């Protein structure tokens, strides 16, 4: 099976192109450059319904989330059955900017907007998506069969919770296992989080609550 990312020709020497080229063997993808795609938009095969765009930190920091160049990306993704907007946050340093992308891309255009720490992190997520989309989806222990969530959807939920300052992947799993869904976690009190999740102190619990107090973020993540 050949896993392919179609990138705009202008991306040939970009950080994303280099990061994709340096992926480990188990996540390797072939890069095809084309003039028939919008800059920053990645078309993926053999699963054509997947569309991804990675917005680099430099653009996140310098342009508003409703900039015309971003709106063209959102529009291009809307006809995809599985569309993801990855926003580079420089390990959380651009979190305020990320929430604005959530509000525009998520609320106004109905897209999944997910934080990534770096371009390399984004490249790994893109590769995992392409590889996973060719396999049958199956429920995982994180949500359970009753929820109907697929493994790929769970991965996106975990990555969203990992965007909370101080929350790593294992802690994100613990939180979602305890409260079942992002909505359940968002409705939880500081005391409930600290008491019900092993190893969660009041300081970390307060950060989780603060994250979900942003009504727009909660609406998007539900």
TrEMBL record:
GO molecular function, one term: chromatin binding
Gene Ontology cellular-component terms listed: Fanconi anaemia nuclear complex
Keywords: DNA damage, DNA repair
DNA damage recorded as keyword: yes
One Gene Ontology term from the biological process aspect of the record: interstrand cross-link repair
Residue ranges of every copy of the Helix-hairpin-helix DNA-binding motif class domain listed in the record: 159-178, 192-211
UniProt keyword annotation of DNA damage present: yes
Name of this chain's protein: Helix-hairpin-helix DNA-binding motif class 1 domain-containing protein
Record organism: Chytriomyces confervae
């Amino acid at each position: 099976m050949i896993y392919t990312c179609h990138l705009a020709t202008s991306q040939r020497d970009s950080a994303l192109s280099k990061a994709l080229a340096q992926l480990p063997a188990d996540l390797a993808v072939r890069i095809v450059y084309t003039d028939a795609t919008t800059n920053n938009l990645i078309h993926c095969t053999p699963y054509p319904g997947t569309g991804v765009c990675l917005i680099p930190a430099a653009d996140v920091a310098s342009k508003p989330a409703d900039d015309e160049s971003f709106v063209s990306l959102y529009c291009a993704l809307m006809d995809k059955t599985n569309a993801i907007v990855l926003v580079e946050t420089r390990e959380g340093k651009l979190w305020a900017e990320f929430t604005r992308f959530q509000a525009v891309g998520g609320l106004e255009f109905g897209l999944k907007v997910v934080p990534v720490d770096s371009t390399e992190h984004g490249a790994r997520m893109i590769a995992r998506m392409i590889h996973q989309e060719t396999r049958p989806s199956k429920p995982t222990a994180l949500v359970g069969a009753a929820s109907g969530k697929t493994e790929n959807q769970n991965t996106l939920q975990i990555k969203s919770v990992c965007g909370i300052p101080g929350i790593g992947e294992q802690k994100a799993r613990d939180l979602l296992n305890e409260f079942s869904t992002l909505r359940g976690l968002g409705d939880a009190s500081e005391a409930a989080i600290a008491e019900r999740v092993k190893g969660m102190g009041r300081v970390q619990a307060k950060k989780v609550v603060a994250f979900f107090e942003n009504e727009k973020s909660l609406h998007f993540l539900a």
